[in-house]
Amino acid sequence: MAIKSVKEVNRKEYYIFSPFLRIFHWIMASQIVILFATGLLITKPMDVAVVEPVFSITSMDLVRDIHFTSAFILCASLILRIYGFIINKGDRLFPRVWEGHFYEETVDVALHYMLLRGHHASFLRNPLARGSYAALYVLLAIEILTGFAMYFMTNPSSTGGMLFGWVNVLVGSEMMSHYIHHYVAWFIILFAIGHLYMVIRAEFMEGESEISSMFSGKKILAHTPKDANELD
Amino acid sequence: MEKRESLWEAYLRRGFSRRSFLKGCVALTSLMGFGTDMFSKVVEAAETKPLPVVIWIHGHECTGCDESFIRSGAPLASDVVLSSIALEYDHLLSAACGAPFEAHLDETIAKYNGQYILAVEGAVATRDSGVYCMSGGHTFTHLLAKAAKGAAAIIAYGSCSAYGGIQAAKPNPTGSAGIEHFVGGKPIVKVPGCPPIPEVMTGVVMHVALFGTIPPVDGDGRPKQFYGNRIHDTCYRRPFFDAGMFAETFDDQGAKAGWCLYKLGCRGPETYNSCGNLRWWQGMSYPIQSGAPCIGCSNSNFWDEDPFTTRLPKYGKLGDADKIGIGLGVATAAGVVGHAVASIVQRNSRENLIDEEHHD
User: Fold this and answer.
1) CB 3.0-4.6 Å disulfide test: which of A101, A125, B88, B191 passes with B108?
2) pTM for this predicted structure
3) Which residues of chain A lie closer than 8 angstroms to B244, CB-CB?
4) How confident is the model over B292-329, as pLDDT tens digits?
5) What is the homologous superfamily of the domain A14-93 according to CATH?
6) Element (H, E) at A38
7) Structure confidence by residue, pLDDT tens digits, A72-101
């Protein structure tokens, strides 16, 4: 007689996330937390509340340095990610929007998440999720462009100033770059809340190693996914 | 004025010594933002170049730039106007008026076609065919197009002529805009500021006068020697910023002690100007030094980036972006909790259904 909490399930293991992608993911996650926290501190520095300059314990300089270092690490890992995308056939950067079935599948998943449907087809790469990652990349690109536009314009004649200075002109003024940089940061945090919830939910509802796949690179599925042919 | 004299000839005519001429050239070299290696070129230009003809027109503006210009200390504005340039036409400084004055403008444009410098203060009013800014019976747009046609170079003085100015603030009823797209593609150097620093104004016109070309400009058309640095990066209060020492209100300990005004909305970190190094009134002071946060008056859109006393704009009762962001974050978190509960309910009801089916 089998124990009630032990169940025999037939599962298949799919290896989909290369180390490039996984390392990038965790660097990005940690750097976004650091960047967001230091970014808020740069916009609104802590109150000093000291009467003598020598006793000041806050250091804007340090906070800014952490922010900049963190930004460079994130950009470096992004380059690594793109390199991985080029050399690994299985890595994806953007959803395949040119393939018609992407849209039907996205609608199917969205209807399930709106609780209008009981379930959705099994996927290795959830099309709705991948759409949201594409949106995240766009947000990141805006942050990188406006960020470097502000950072390098300390010396407008420098190479960096030449490469990114046009962003300030494009958005109207450098202050506008500050605003956009700040507002988009909030949208990234809203994405992070949603993302965190959705992976926990997937793990909880389906139990198909959604969370651990970002460590091991493998998804262990009970159903045969619809996009099983897209492994490489 | 048939044969135009050079600066050196003007000095000779007045009986000044060679020595005082060279001293004047040293002063010119430094105020144009050059190193001493450019000194010989400045002397050469001052000896040979005839004094340039300048036509100075005023559009949609307050003439505050002229108020700044006439206070230039090195060189004195009077020296520039009377000795260093041949100011043929100026709406504000000319004694003449009426039809003869307007006729003189046409004569000057015809006589020095392709040689004169056009200095423009003020924006163009574009809405309703430009009727919101008229002079001499014509729209300013008409005057600008006429004067720009034969100009060798154009200097746009002030934030109005560079970017549209305060009257271009939302909703911009007169359609005020910078002159850039109304001069038929002529080379233009922007000298923004509300007003620009006096010595920057005289420095730029002297550069164009002596070398016949516009000074090296950045991507936005501003002379690099005066607009190449942020006020923030040249500010004497910068160490307080780096140390995290800020004035929180206009009357607190930090404000009295002269700490950084960043938290009071200072636009120094976004503003390119020479306030930090040249300062105003021969280096006496500048807004931040007097305890007022920079409002970024030489920026392209500063008039719509209010309030000037905070870093982030506020949206009525909703507050600023951080407050709204926290609100949205809490709402999203509440949303996912609600969704999680609903998901579990949905799954349980589905499983019950499946169980019942098994029973049947």
Assistant:
1) B88
2) 0.87
3) 45-46, 48, 56, 58-61, 63
4) 999 999 998 899 988 899 999 888 888 888 999 999 99
5) Transmembrane di-heme cytochromes, Chain C (1.20.950.20)
6) helix A19-43
7) 999 999 999 999 999 988 788 888 888 878
